[in-house]
Write a structure and sequence with these properties.
Strand content of chain B: under 5%
Radius of gyration of chain A: 21 Å
Shape of chain A: globular
Largest sheet of chain A: 5 strands, antiparallel
Low-confidence stretches of chain B: none
Distance between the termini of chain B: 69 Å
Number of helices of chain B: 4
Helix content of chain A: under 10%
Number of helices of chain A: 1
Radius of gyration of chain B: 19 Å
Oligomer: heterodimer
Structural class of chain A: mainly beta
Chain lengths: 335, 117
Amino acid sequence: MAALIVVVGAVVGVAGFAWEQAHAGWRPHVVAMQGGWRVSQPSLGVEAPSLAGDHAAWSAGPYTVVMDLRSGKTRLIGDARDAQSLAPPDVSERAATWAEYASGPDDTNLVYAYDFSSGRRQRLLETHAPLIAAPVVAGDTVTWLSGTGSAATVVSCDPATGRRRVLARGSHLGPFLFADGPFVAWSRQARPEAPFALVVVDTSTNEVSDLTLPDQSGASFDAPILADDTLVWQRSAGQSSTVNAYDLGTLVGHVVASGPLVGAPGFDGVTVAWAQREAGGAGFEIMSRRLSGGAVVRVARVAQNVQSVMVSGATVAWWAGSGQRSYLQTARLPL
Amino acid sequence: MTRRPAGGEAVASKRGIGSEQLLFWCLLELWVLNVADLLLTRYALWLGFATEENGVMRYFLHEGTLLAAVFKIGIVTVGVVALWRVRRRPAALAAAVLLTVVFAAVVAYQAAWLVSL
């Protein structure tokens, strides 16, 4: 009889949990495809996904969701229903980070980190200062750029120890911030139309490099990705658009892809992936090539407009469609 | 000279022993479930996905796990002993059953959430 009382309580508790999960608004629709997954978010849409290692993360309305690409299992890691907006997540092989903004009398900005192995989420920063760039993560270390005027700071934080390190303090920092391995880099630009410089810090040696990207005149740069000592940018000048790769040490660059490019490219240090308009067709193509050279390979044809392409190891992913019909799809890179 | 209990008194006595046994097991389960609730709550807080809604427990958990454990286990132990002391009242058994169901539901909810991770 006493055991039955516990069983009754347990059934009530499990039923309550199941009911709550069944009515959760964040759950994505995940479909297994050949060599990957297709993820959509009914009535929310997929926003600004990020891919690294075995994980992808994205925003969906007020939620931040992470997915294990091996199992297709998804998990809600951020719920910003109390906040006003989100900064897109960034993932490394080991962790994810994102920011939530809550405007109002408090005007609070929050930076979170989520560790894939422990499943632990931590709030790393709660500040009234604006975030100039979305936080980024390399390995376990999260870096953010916040502040105004001459009080802008670049801070890196190890969530495991809580140890913070101010990498830079000054004015005109941003809007670009990216990190890979021990390297953290950010842009510095006196005026929006002026050429920008890149500051690269090797956090393992504290060596600081000041670099200026060549060919900035009349061009705009978007979607920088730093991986394996190489910086990949999308450079647009007039009607032409190219994906350029620059050696971080010398800033010697070369064009990896050109043509009717759409969306932001992806790069993992070995492979560059991008989307382009299909020649003579109404669709789009996901393309890839090794940075070291070799042939351009068509990965997939996509009917909807592609917003960004990501690549990590043998996995390529693209974010396509718009609004509530946007989706994230992953596939194996052709050998 | 000994007095043998009448048939009605014997049945009542047996029933009393039965409900006392049930109360004992319910209180034991309640105590164990309370400890499980503390451990699961502490783990969920460490994971960063839970907030303690009970203001008193929130204060003690903020002060430290040991203090929270002393308070939570202590107060439930006092409650369990108090219910045992008034075990002859039917309300004691009703309260113990209700509390055990509630604690079992809370612990099962937390366990289901952890399993779903």
